[in-house]
Specification:
- By secondary structure, this protein is of the alpha/beta class.
- A five-stranded parallel β-sheet has the order 2-5-6-1-7, with helices on both faces.
- A hairpin with a 2-residue loop joins strand 10 and strand 11 (355-358).
- It has helices at residues 19-30, 45-54, 56-59, 75-90, 95-104, 132-145, 168-178, 191-199, 219-232, 239-248, 253-266, 277-299, 302-314, 323-328, 333-345, 361-368; strands spanning 35-38, 63-68, 113-114, 120-121, 150-155, 182-188, 210-213, 236-237, 272-273, 349-352, 355-358.
- Helix 1 (19-30) packs across helix 2, helix 9 packs across helix 10 and helix 11 (253-266) packs across helix 12.
- Bound molecules: adenosine-5'-diphosphate and magnesium ion.
- Adenosine-5'-diphosphate is lined by residues 5-8, 15-18, 39, 41-47, 253-254, 257.
């Protein structure tokens, strides 16, 4: 098995560092402080939450729920995902645990079926949730009365700001405020949307939570981690190689994991992986992704394609409607304004602290080679 995980969480042995962050988050949660966890994508927010939830002091004392609401578009879908994720988590906690949850969920109970072993199966359709506000109320009844304290992590929380219902933040805030048996983590990536939710005085969540950022894992700790896993299998890697990868991908966890995974696979036991392998690994990865990226680009409207390529050439683009940018890439301000919205919505481009850049660094690299 390749020790460099590129998707999800496996166990502490394959999780690099985050010692202080884990302690901090656990300290907040065990003292019943809600936390907003904010960082750019792919740095490891979800991983950190999973890691904390796997620690024995958490696992043994709490019910932990992690619900990803990235794909939800309204309160209806939010309630659907939340109840589904709670039920699926409780299934591994035994009959008493899930029966109590279903007992609270009067509005949905008739829609739940059972498999041949008597375990509940979530095969509800979105339409089975007739009154999301009522179901949400029942979920909070459950959280308040569960036989253990609950930790609820809502991942990609910023999407609630895009729901068409205007009262969702206030509704959630009220429930959460009155629910002393549950503590919440709100994880989110789009910095400006997350900070609007938590630091605008006019918004319901204002000053209701501790705010925690996440920085890249440090180079020395990543080097130790990668070398350790190479050595365990009789392989070697020079620190310069790790540093090269780290700098190339600005310390962003997912890319480093992906590259380490690839470099590990390219190195036979007894061999040493050296820095010249980095470009080879990148080329291999890009050729594996060639089909995906070609189709992505093909699906883009022409204007968005032009703007995406311009941002890619620029690397980090600040003033995308200033005349220098427009002249250099032969664009007009109105076409840029139209296109950038679509690119941000589809997550092709990110906008952090005034800088636009291509979100997926492998895609960026691939575009540069066109
Ligand atoms: N500390 C870590 N050690 C090893 N891999 C990690 C670590 N944190 C995250 N990852 C991996 O990096 C990828 C991105 O992390 P994730 O937690 O999904 O980021 P985010 O939620 O911030 O977008 C995941 O595939 C995960 O497996
Ligand atoms: Mg995440």
């Amino acid at each position: 098995m390749n020790p460099f995980i590129t998707n999800g969480y496996v166990s502490p042995a394959y999780f690099c560092d985050r010692v202080e962050e884990t302690a901090t988050l656990i300290r907040y949660l065990t003292s019943a402080n809600n936390v907003a966890l904010i960082s750019p994508r792919r740095l490891g927010k979800t991983g950190l939450i999973e890691h904390c939830f796997h620690q024995s002091e958490i696992k043994e004392r709490y019910y932990t729920f992690l619900v990803d609401i990235y794909a939800t578009k309204n309160l209806h879908e939010f309630v659907f995902e939340l109840s589904k994720s709670i039920l699926n988590t409780l299934k591994s906690r035994g009959r008493k645990a899930w029966e109590f949850f279903l007992g609270c969920l009067a509005s949905l109970r008739t829609g739940i079926s059972f498999d041949f072993t008597g375990n509940p199966v979530w095969n509800l359709e979105m339409g089975d949730i007739k009154t999301p506000v009522v179901t949400l109320d029942e979920i909070f009844q459950y959280l308040s009365k569960a036989d253990r304290p609950c930790l609820v992590a809502i991942d990609e929380f910023q999407v609630i700001a895009k729901y068409p219902e205007k009262h969702v933040e206030a509704l959630l805030r009220t429930h959460i405020q009155h629910c002393s048996n549950a503590t919440f983590v709100y994880a989110g990536s789009q910095r400006h949307m997350m900070s609007e939710i938590f630091v605008s005085p006019s918004r319901p969540f204002y000053q209701s939570t501790a705010i925690m950022g996440l920085d890249p894992i440090s180079l020395p700790r990543y080097t130790d981690f990668i070398q350790h896993h190479f050595e365990t299998d009789g392989k070697h890697i020079t620190p310069e190689t790790v540093e090269n990868v780290y700098r190339h991908f600005e310390g962003i966890t997912w890319y480093i994991q992906f590259m380490a995974n690839s470099l590990y696979a390219m190195t036979a036991p007894g061999e040493t992986c050296t820095a010249d392998k980095v470009t080879v690994a990148i080329s291999n990865i890009l050729s594996q992704l060639n089909f995906t990226y070609s189709s992505l680009l093909f699906q883009l409207p022409p204007k968005q394609k032009e703007v995406l390529i311009a941002i890619c050439k620029e690397g980090k683009a600040c003033e995308i409607t200033a005349s220098r940018f427009l002249k250099t890439y032969k664009l007009t301000a109105s076409s840029v304004q139209g296109a950038i919205k679509g690119l941000l919505d589809k997550d092709f481009v990110t906008h952090e602290l005034g800088v636009y850049s291509v979100y997926d660094k492998f895609f960026e690299e691939w575009l540069k080679r066109l």
